[in-house]
Protein 1
Amino acid sequence: MASAFVKRYLLALDRYKWPSLGTFLGIVGISAVVALQPPPPPQYRAEGVLVQNAPLLALTTTGTEVQQRGQGIISENFLLADVLLQQVSLELERRGMSMNPETLRNRTTVQLEGEENLVQRVTVSFRGDNEEQSGMVLGLMFEAMVELSRVTNRARLRAIGTALDERLPAVEADLRAAEQALEAYDRTEGPAIQAALDGSLLGSISGGQQQQRQNQIALAGLDSQIQSLQQQLGLSPGQAFTASALSADPIIAQLRSQILETETQIRLLAPSLRPSHPTMQSLQQNLAAYNTLLAERAQEVIGGQGLAALPSVSEVRQNSTLDPARAALANQLVSLSAERAALASQQQVLSQADGQLRQQYSSLPNKQLERNRLAQRVALNQALYDQIQAKRIDAAAAEAETVSSLTIAEPPTVIVQADEPTSPISVMAVGGLLGLVAAGAVAFLLDLLDSTARTAEDIQGILTDQDVPVLALVPTLVTASAQGWPMLYQPQAPDLEIYERLRSSLRRAGTLSEAGVAPRVLLIVSSRGGEGKTTSAFNLGIAAARAGRRTLVVEADLRQASCSHWLGVSLGREASAEPLHHYAGRQQDPIHLAPWVENLYLAPSPGPQPHPAAILESSEIGQFLADARARFDLVLIDAPPLSYSNDALLLGASSDGLVLVTRPGYTDKAVLEALLEQLLENEDLPLLGAIVNAAGAANPVSPADPGVGATTLAPEAQPMVRSIDF
């Protein structure tokens, strides 16, 4: 027996034979077109080799660097530059051969050999239409490549010279600025640095320190003399100077004598004369005048010497009475005080000079560092200037030795490439093989995109995954009527045994359920039309009736017309007009005996009805099914497909279990999986199992075919059936 995969693949080939055939014929047609193509013309390939080039004698460093850089830039983009291809295209046009730059680029192949940034060998090939064209084009391209490398090297050399010329003025200006800064620094700080270097600065510092020590000794001697004279005179140097100046002035001496004489007269006359006496008044006035004159003269004398004025006349008279000896001591004290002031001022000047010299000496290292920095700056700028000048001279000399970085090592040679013609028979054979493979692949892919279960194994796998028992695998049925309806009329029908086993499986499934008894009312459903639901219900009813059980088949699909005429039962028009009266038995008995099968009864459908759900939910239908349960041993309800409506579920309360009918080529996998999940979740209506129709069919019929895969035998005397619907 063929495996499930091979069976499904064969079914897919049969189902998608036209797309597969179209694919096969398309590929074979393409291969025929290819086989009939004339052989391609021969191709001409010119090939040559370029290698590195260097001047015979290199004397300049710049020339060597330019050559090395020129070798480093060699690449495919450089060798096939737009300017090169344009020049070659113009030259070809001048020689009477038209070829645009893009065609030159597409037909040229460049292969570089060597290390990174150092190409040692360049192999260039060109594909042309003839031998002369190929050799000419590649020769022109070789000349252009060599010339482009030479021009590039010369342009690089000129760029170096231009860059040096642009850099030189700025470098020269920096050198002149550095020299001027060093020169200005030497003018300002050079003498100090030179003095420090020859030792004169240290001599000045030590001489100043020695002079300060001598002045300190002299000041100490003067201080002792001044202190001795102050003790003798009881005057400070300033007071001594004032007393000496007043005592030496003759006018002050004369005024002092006149004041003394006037005071003497006043004292002599005071006992005898009153103060208001004219003589006393005159003497008092003379005394006041002398005192005023004395004060003014003292002010002149003292002010003339730059000293502060005396506070009163009595102090003037007291400080102007020095005798010659004391006046000599006072003059000596004033002289010593002046000498000490001079030495103190000299000492201060020496101290300031010493500080300046010391500061100058301490800043000497910074000055030397600053001068060294300026000198180093001048040296660096001078070195850079000299280097640029040398580079300019070297670049000017390199112009004579600059050559191309490439040279032709192997001139272009033309090779004729003629492809061996392919045999048309081989092409057709390969095309036929590819067509077969592609046709099979198309059928397989289309089958993968189709969600319909194509084999009984596919349906069994889904049922097994959902733990739904398979009650029967019904093969293709053999029909006994000329119309092809697979109704098992004859008692000796070979397929009747299958439905006998199905009936036994249903009893066993009922005993294993929670009810524990064989079901009396069964709901026969399917996911869609064409799966053989009605055929299965009728044949199962026939099998039960043949076994001696009173069996009723109820057509509950009120959306379709009745199929009871298969078994010779017809229904009047009044039943379709008043379906509720029909099921209530007000018009006639809704149950009819099948004329050709004993113990088999039918309840034909009064359909199609506009509102089937309302009828199925009515009390008349409920009472009808309750009466049927009491009158018959087995009641089979042929319900509508579940994918079209939920009418079948409305009858679940009146049934003992549900049987799901499937059929390869009709049942959709996704719909079946969703339907099984929904039915298994409904605990009020147990799912007893499933029937797989056409399980042994090698070629399932299309949805337009009747039954479960019927095969028609020779016609026998059976009732004529005019229509059927699944």
Protein 2
Amino acid sequence: MDFKSRLQRQYPAIVQDLDVKYILDELYQKNVFTNSDFSHIVNVTSREEQVRFLLDNLIQYGTVATFDAFVDSLAKDYGWLYEKLIGNHEPIMDDSFEDSLSKGDERTVAEKLRQLKRHKILVLLGMSGSGKSCVAISALRDNPDLITNDFNGVVLWLNMGNCKTDDDIIVQQMNIGSNGDNSLSNLDWTWRDLKDRLKTQFLEQTLKECLLVLDEVNDRQCLEALDIGCKILITTRDTEVVANYDAQIVKIENNLEKEESLKIFASCLDETVFLTRPNANPMKAIEFCINALNDNLLQCYKKLAILPDNVKVSAKVLGKLWNRDIPEVNSFMKQLKGKSLIIESYDREQRNYLYEVHDIIMSYLRTRLNDDEKQKIHDLFLNSYNYARNSAPVEILDDGYIAFHVGYHILNTRNLNDKWRLFRKLFLDLKFLGNKVRLTGPADFFDIPTNKLKKELFENETSRGVPVKWIGVAYSKNPPIVAVLFSGGVLKLWYIDDIDQDNDEDVIEEEPEEIYNNNIPGTMIIKSTLMPIIKCNWTTNEDYLIAQTADMIILYLPTGDVVNVIDNFERNVRLLCSVPCRSSKIITLKHREVTQHEFKINPNTIKKCNTCKTRTIITSYDVKETLVFLSMAVNKTGTLLFISTDDSRVICSFANHKEVKKALKCTLSLKPLNLKGICNNNEGSLHPLLAVIDDKNNIQ
């Protein structure tokens, strides 16, 4: 027997008797758990919860060595537990042998069945539709020698899903026990009487080693009536069924398609259900399971319907959703887990359990609440995080959930209690956005669409369907300006107040802004008359657009007027990139040279008295005669730059020195990388961060 099975078998006894504080120091010294595990156990106030955490950790992540250390720690003060775990000194199987099975892992189930002894029970535990019956059938069908050698050629299969009364149980007992014995048909027999007769019958040589399979056991009385001394395999979704038995439990995870799961759910019904029939209702099995919950638990369970699809939440989040304290939430989750109505997983990073609702059950739950109820639950849930109409804290609770989904819940209140005001207060607050990005990362910057984000920008036929190469927004302007560069070299500008409102009810209507100056021009299209624009950027103060072609740089006003043209580049020398910096500077890169252009613009005499000073910062010949520059990264002030080369190096140079000396350059050796690009950030940091990307998109 493997050590995990021993722990599972003695789990109730250990929880009942053990006090972890007497063995905690010894386990810590033997590295049974980490510092984080130690802190968690110390901070948990309940003795039982401390023991459960320790056992769950050993079962899920333990090794043979940590199990031995745990058992040894019990020898002195908990001898009776020590004896139970040592047992008959059976050899412990390799700890890589897993008890948690998936659909189709019949080989492991077959091995468990080979080890099964008389008067012992093997349990396949899983949610309805998880494939428990399929695994059992496959294990027996694909291993005929198992049936012949271990079960004396006899396997009896009973479907217990429809057993609801004593009469139903008696019918099942008679199905396996009649065998020509007409005395069992006596109507005066109770199921207890029949159980005694079956025990005697199954002592016969032909039946003594047989396997009895009880499929879909939902009531512990069914197992009690058929516990007749033979080897038993049962499938169930409820651990309460075997609570009083010394059973080995194997978890079966759900890997079935939706249609397969629904067919298994339908098998629990009193009538045949055809999934393709328009009026079929395959959710009856789910409804039956959920309605069996007590009222308090049922009301809480229904509230899970407001959660997004495929999301995992902690007990802390559920406590806010249900307005319950953590111990009560844990008690509820234990009941739901026992009935396979919740999926539990352990997050090693957060050091706690996470819970998820199966998507089929979630679909049913959402039919149990009307729209008004859902909106009210969303509203109360936000209030539990202090997100009320007049309260919009920019600090975000780091519980692994609300930072990701606050926008989702605001949207789904459907503006109940004027909750949509929160969107403007939060998502237009840079402190809130900064906190959100810190917790979620930039990929989850916005949860929900607004009419501004959903606006179709391709308004005319010349732009429609053309890929976009770059988008830049000048937030400092009033109104803000969106600039879009299309792959055809066309630059197009929009003013935010030009974007129309739509009537999509899923889109939050933002509060009206004060009326902007009517003299602001409309949508602007900019085309270079000589060559197409290949790159574009706003200057750091967002006053001008820097448009780059293959051999020149053009400065535009947002109105489309040309401010200046920098074209003093050699013919047939390609301009690789241009980077705007503060103090009206632009740094350009060519294969052999990096140049700084400092321009001065007189706003009163545009295109007449504008000047531009140019100087070379560094050339490839300063480093190596045959060297070629590939890409460049520059800090915002334009004082520090990094250049990647064709021989897998990065050159660091200081742009504010008029004479570049070799002492001012340092080279980072990155061989054998072939550089594709570089970028840097952390403006103002003592040690700026430099990211280097190679031709295989690896990052250093």
